[in-house]
Every structure is written in structure tokens, then in C-alpha cells.
């Protein structure tokens, strides 16, 4: 079985006036169906540029990127947009929900841009199913400002799932969340991954990367470490620790 992602000697160079910025330098890697991968690195390491290439948002300067067997390297802009819509789901740090649009309508949005027209009844059915996956079907008619940060991120995850993508790409998905809500959201990702969904996540937080199965460490545009996670964090276990700590704090306060 071919990998869902194959990068072959990928380079990405930007011109900043007369200065050439080498953001990605000769990265080669495979990601297979069902993996849960964290891309880590400090600011300026190249991890965001690498994620943009994976998301077909940016074309590499040199090298080949095969997404589910399709060579994306020479696709035109509209072809890349169609491929993104069909094969990829995106989750961002800032949620990017439309403020005056319900959770259900936000989740329906990717289907409006699908090359294949989806009937309204099917859109609603699929959007409700995606919200159910993330445990928010009862909040379908709520606006974003009526939802907590964690709930908004779960709506964003449902939106990313609605077109049944090959890969879920998450860019710092817990960056705007407190520690408890971050554990809840990582639980959603772990459950999705357990169902066979491939997830690639950019994060600078080591504790968040421990929820993944594989960590890629990026430095100066290169993958300097590629390792499987040992002693992986499991969201249910970590959430119980949070509850125990909250209970202990309440008992201490009351005494």
C-alpha cells in the first residue's frame, strides 16, 4: 500500500529582496494511513512551511510531493484547490468560524466549495453526522459566541471532517486553549485516529506532541529526528488526573 503522503527531496526557498531564505531543505518522508504525526520545531524551523506544502497551500521549489498517489508538484492553482477540498481537512489555532453562522452551517461550508454539488438535505445530514462525531450534535443551532473555546475547536474539527478527507492537518490546534480543554480536544483527535483517520499536527508543545504516535523534529528546514512516541499520553487517563487534581483542590479549599 502506497503512503498517503510521500515527500521526495522537498526544498522551499523564498526570496526576500536579494536574500534567499531556505525554509525547507531536502525533506524526504512517508506518512501512512492511520498514522498520528506531530511536526515540532521552534519558530523559524520550517515546520509551518512544511505544513503549507503538505496542505497544497504552497508549491515546493524543488522535489516531489505525492498526496494519496497524486503528484501535486506541477498542479495548477485550481487543481490544487480541488485536491485540497477532496483529500484534506484543516484545523487551525484560531478556529476560523463565521461569527453569524450556526455550528451546523459552519460545518456545511466545505461542501459548498466541493466540485461535486451536494444537495442541501445531504449537506445537513453529513454536517450533523460530523458534529455527532465530535459530540456536539446538540449544539448544532448555536452561534460560535454561544460556545466555549473547546466547543468551537470541535466544530472546526467537524468542519474538517465533513468531506471525509484522507488526512486531517491541524496547525497548533490547542494554541488558544487552556490545559484542561487541550486534553479534551486531544481526546477528540485520538478517537478520530483510532477510527483510522490520518492526522498530521504542527505543535510547539511537547506535552501535546506526546498524544501523537510519531514525532518529527524540524530544525533549519530539515527533519533532524523522526521517532515513535514511547509512553504516549492517553486523553482519558490525563483527564482523570485533571479531575483528581480539581477534587483535591476543592477539598483543600473547603477544609
- By CATH, the architecture is named 3-Layer(aba) Sandwich
Spatial order of the strands in the main sheet? 6-7-8-3-9-10
Structural class: alpha/beta
The ordered string of helix (H) and strand (E) elements is EEEHEEHEHHHEHEHEEH
CATH top level is: Alpha Beta
Count helical runs: 8
Q: Any low-confidence stretches, pLDDT <50, length ≥5?
A: none
Radius of gyration: 19 Å
Return the domain count: 1
Strand content: 25-35%
What's the CATH topology label?
Answer: Rossmann fold
Give the strand tally.
10
Characterise this structure.
It is a single chain. With 255 residues, this protein is an alpha/beta fold. It has one domain (5-254): 3-Layer(aba) Sandwich (Rossmann fold), CATH 3.40.50.300. The chain is 38% helix and 26% strand. It contains eight helices and ten strands. The protein has helices at 47-54, 77-87, 103-112, 120-133, 149-161, 179-194, 206-209, 235-254, and strands at 5-16, 19-31, 36-40, 62-67, 70-71, 88-92, 167-171, 198-202, 214-219, 222-228. The strands form two sheets. The chain has a six-stranded mixed sheet with strand order 6-7-8-3-9-10, with helices on both faces. It has a four-stranded antiparallel sheet with strand order 2-1-4-5, with helices on one face. Helix 4 packs across helix 5 and helix 6 (179-194) runs antiparallel to helix 8. The protein is globular, with a radius of gyration of 19 Å.
Amino acid at each position: 500500500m502506497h503512503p498517503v503522503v510521500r515527500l521526495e527531496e522537498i526544498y522551499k526557498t523564498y526570496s526576500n529582496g536579494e536574500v534567499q531564505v531556505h525554509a525547507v531543505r531536502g525533506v524526504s518522508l512517508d506518512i501512512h494511513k492511520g498514522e498520528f504525526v506531530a511536526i515540532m520545531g521552534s519558530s523559524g524551523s520550517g515546520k509551518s512551511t512544511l505544513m503549507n506544502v503538505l496542505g497544497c497551500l504552497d508549491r515546493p521549489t524543488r522535489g516531489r510531493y505525492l498526496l494519496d498517489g497524486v503528484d501535486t508538484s506541477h498542479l495548477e492553482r485550481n487543481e490544487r484547490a480541488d485536491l485540497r477540498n477532496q483529500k484534506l481537512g484543516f484545523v487551525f489555532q484560531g478556529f476560523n468560524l463565521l461569527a453569524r453562522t450556526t455550528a451546523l452551517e459552519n460545518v456545511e461550508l466545505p461542501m459548498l466549495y466541493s466540485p461535486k454539488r451536494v444537495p442541501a438535505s445531504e449537506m445537513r445530514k453529513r454536517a450533523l453526522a460530523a458534529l455527532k462525531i465530535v459530540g456536539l450534535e446538540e449544539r448544532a443551532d448555536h452561534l460560535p459566541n454561544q460556545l466555549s473555546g473547546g466547543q468551537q475547536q470541535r466544530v472546526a474539527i467537524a468542519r474538517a471532517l465533513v468531506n471525509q478527507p484522507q488526512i486531517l492537518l491541524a496547525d497548533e490546534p490547542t494554541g488558544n486553549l487552556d490545559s484542561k480543554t487541550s486534553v479534551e480536544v486531544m481526546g477528540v483527535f485520538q478517537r478520530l485516529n483510532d477510527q483510522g483517520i490520518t492526522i498530521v499536527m504542527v505543535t510547539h508543545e511537547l506535552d501535546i506532541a506526546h498524544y501523537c504516535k510519531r514525532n518529527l523534529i524540524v530544525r533549519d528546514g530539515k527533519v533532524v529526528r523522526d521517532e515513535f512516541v514511547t509512553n504516549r499520553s492517553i486523553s482519558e487517563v490525563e483527564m482523570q488526573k485533571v479531575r483528581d487534581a480539581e477534587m483535591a483542590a476543592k477539598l483543600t479549599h473547603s477544609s
